Amino acid sequence: MVADRRELLGFASVGLLAYAVDLGLFTVLRGPAGLDPLTAKTLSFVAGCSVAYAGNALGTYRHLGRPRGLRPCAVFFAVNAAGAAVQLLCLAVSHYGLGLTSQRADTVSGAGVGMVLGTILRFWGTRTLVFRSGAAADGRKGSWNGTSGGRVGTWTG
Prior knowledge:
It contains four helices and no strands. The protein is mostly helical. It is globular, with a radius of gyration of 17 Å. It starts with a helix and ends in a 27-residue tail after the last helix. It comes from Streptomyces hyderabadensis. Belongs to the GtrA family.
């Protein structure tokens, strides 16, 4: 149970740092650098994901050993892209589907509801698809419940 809290706290801390990098770089690229919004956001998203991957690999999930090869990094970026898509979907449904077009409604749906749902997806994907290797140094398995190194909680086992 304590390890689960540590994992959640580590994941949240790394996520906050990655968010700060994403936001700070986006602000610089949009402002002084003068890039268009999509280019600036793409570059800041990649930088934020890179910080999050490094933080989770070297911090939160270090007890599982260092991930090998390009696959874990690619899956991590895919999970984060899916989390971003969830945020955009929440915003689109609220703004275009429900007609809630105020700035406050956009903020609540995209940065509020979308961020919460996207973070849940990112946490699940990171712990079950990216950092899920065999037994850890302390004898625990590489999944969130400590019972198996497979995809816990999915219909594929």
